Amino acid sequence: MWAHLTPALVLFLEVGFPFGLFVPGGDTLLLALGALAGEGRLALFPLLPLLFLGAFLGHGVGYGIGRRLGPSLRKRFPPELLRKGEGVLARFGPSALLLSPFVPGLRTLVPLLFGALGFPLLPYLLLSALGSLLWTQGLVLLAYFLGRELPSWLLWSALALLALLPLWARRPRRQG
User: Fold this and answer.
1) CA gap 157, 149 in Å, rounded
2) I want to staple 35 with a disulfide (CB 3.0 to 4.6 A). Which of 88, 130, 147, 168 is the partner?
């Protein structure tokens, strides 16, 4: 049972609390869990509902923190990430809640911003439920079906490369 509860708790913490901005890993975790399930080493039930719950409750906590801190929240985030988050909100509006779970950093920032901006709670909950569902179930089931079809060495090599991509993207760029 801990193999199912622990990942849900990790998603809850990553999505709901600001340190998820600095320690993202939800996508890789979801894909790895799906691959394990595809190989028959982990059951999809209760994994899928627990992952959804972890992400959805994390969105609720993030919204609540944003609502509580309000405008002072802006001072607590890296300016580049804040600009990125506000750009997503300006461009996509409420549908940002459907897209942000798929983007590390934004999946933590967007709920906080929606709360700080005073977005109405009921539409927020509906959209964040749908976004949480699409993100958790979509990635787990994608990797589940790949895990059933691909050779194990290929699947896990691809997941390792995906996990390393954020590190590669953050490396300092040379001027010149």
Assistant:
1) 15
2) 147
Residue 104 half-sphere exposure toward CB, CA atoms < 13 A: 19
Q: Is the dihedral of CA 156, 161, 167, 169 positive or negative?
A: negative
| Cβ contacts of 56 within 8 Å, gap of 6 or more | 128, 129, 132, 133
- Global confidence as pTM: 0.87
Domain ranges of the chain: 2-169
Residue 48 has a pLDDT of: 98
pLDDT tens by residue, 81-118: 778 888 888 899 999 999 999 988 889 989 998 998 88
Give how far the C-alpha of residue 82 lies from the chain's centroid of Cα atoms, to the nearest Å. 17
Count of other CB atoms within 10 angstroms of residue 78 = 12
Give just the sign of the alpha carbon dihedral 88, 94, 98, 100: positive
